[in-house]
Amino acid sequence: MDDCEVTEEQREEEKQPSDQTGLTTGNQDQAEKPTEGQDSGDEWDTDLETDDDTLQNQSLTRSEKYLQACRWTGAVPVSSFPRLLGEADLNLNHCGVGPLGAKALAIALKNDTDFTNLELEDNALQAEGTRYLMEMLKTNTTIQSLNLSNNQLRLEGAKSISKMLSDNYCITSIKLSGNDFDDSAAKCLADALKGDSIVKELDLSHNKIYGTEGQNLGDMLATNVGIEVLNLSWNYLCKDGAVALSAGPKGNSTLKQLQLSWNGFGRFEVESLGEALKHNSTLVLLDLSSNLIDDQAAALLCPGLATNATLRVLKLSHNPLAHIGAPSLLKTVTENKNSAVEEMDMSKFLAERNESIMDFFQALDKDGTKNVPNSAFRKAVKEANVPLDQRQLEWLIKKFDKNCTATINYRLVCEREYVASL
Fold first, then answer.
1. Which helix (H) or strand (E) holds 185?
2. Is the CB of residue 134 less than 8 Å from the CB of residue 107?
3. 253: which DSSP letter?
4. 3-state secondary structure of 201
5. Which of 25-39, 136-150, 365-379 is predicted with the least confidence, judged by mean pLDDT?
6. Exposure letters 178-213 (e unless 16+ CB within 10 A, then b)
7. Measured between alpha carbons, how far is 409 from 371 in angstroms, rounded to an integer?
8. What are 261-276's pLDDT values in tens digits?
9. What are phi and psi of 274, to 5 degrees?
């Protein structure tokens, strides 16, 4: 049975109060089921109190507290909840929790001290369910990681989360991917995180952030002293907003990973990123895959790469790079003696030349072993007048021979570049 399946016994149990647990909720009027969407009038009056001390009775197990809360709210229990007791992770992804289920869960977790990671992706929580959870986090100081991705939260949900973040001392990771957040929602979150030092990871990918709020996100990065991982992939960042966002890492002292794939970064937007790389000393991964970076845009990244000493991974796959831009980036990195770059993903550029790379190796592999000695490859590259100096050539060999075996397995090299291009 699926972990999230609701059993027939539980449905029957929900209809009839259990005599074994003796869990009552007070008088019938107080236990009357609220209707979905019902609100008490105040945004933060989420009514998590049951008017009964039973749920706070320490003799009750967490499972009993949860089932009692489900009866009180009228929510259908998630069958996997009891089986997750004793674990640090409460994973209820894709379980159809809904707003009322979120309310029951919030009541049960209000004073919980065991769960540190709460996973609630794809549960149609909406803004109403989010308010219940944010109210719960006022008293629960154990949960540190929260995943609310794909829950149709929109602007109202962002407002509730922003209010929690303004007084947050516990949540270090929050995933909010796929919630139809627009620029207004992004502004709420950015304002809440200015100067924040608690949240380390923020995922806002797969939303509808266009760029007019790029200035707020950039200002947030300039003043935030906590975020280490920021994911803004699959949005609509471009033009002035993207330029303002790109300036954020310039003065940031904590950001380690910035993911900007599938946006609209081109020549105009990338220049600001190149300038930021000159000054940033913490960023180790920059993902610009599937943008609009051509040879001219790549040239604008080069000044930053020429001096940066911390960036290790630069992802540029599926960009319109050609025979000038890709070699220029490689040359810039190899000529920077302080460069820390270990991986530069230009897989589409390489994949378009995959056949010629394979032919080059096969010409050196007289015995058909799919292995070519580094010395033979080095000699062949020089004889072919490939425009690489000694430092660049050694960097390329190191990339091909990652295990330092003095031999290049070119079948693996070509397969790796092909798979990365898909």
1. helix 183-193
2. no
3. S
4. strand
5. 25-39
6. bbbbbbebbbbbbebbeebeebbbbbbbbbebbbbb
7. 5
8. 999 999 999 999 999 9
9. -60, -40
Residues in the chain: 422
**Angle at 197 (CA atoms; ends 196, 199), nearest 5 degrees:** 85
Please tell me the predicted confidence (pLDDT) of residue 162: 97
Question: How do 407-409 and 285-287 pair as beta strands?
Answer: unpaired
CA dihedral (190, 191, 192, 198) positive or negative:
positive
| Residue 317, both tokens | 């796959």
> b/e map of 21-45 (b: 16 or more CB within 10 Å)?
eebebeeeeebeeeeeeeeeeeeee
Here the tokens at position 99 are: 């707003």
Q: 8-12, 126-130, 140-144: lowest mean pLDDT where?
A: 8-12
Beta bridge partners of 400: none
Query: Cβ contacts of residue 218 below 8 Å, gap of 6+?
Result: 244, 245, 246, 247, 248
Give SS3 for 318.
coil
E strand or H helix at 17? none
Q: Give me the mean pLDDT over the 190-214 stretch.
A: 92
Place of tokens 């020429």: 306
Which letter does DSSP use for residue 229 in this model? E
Distance CA 137, CA 135 (A): 5
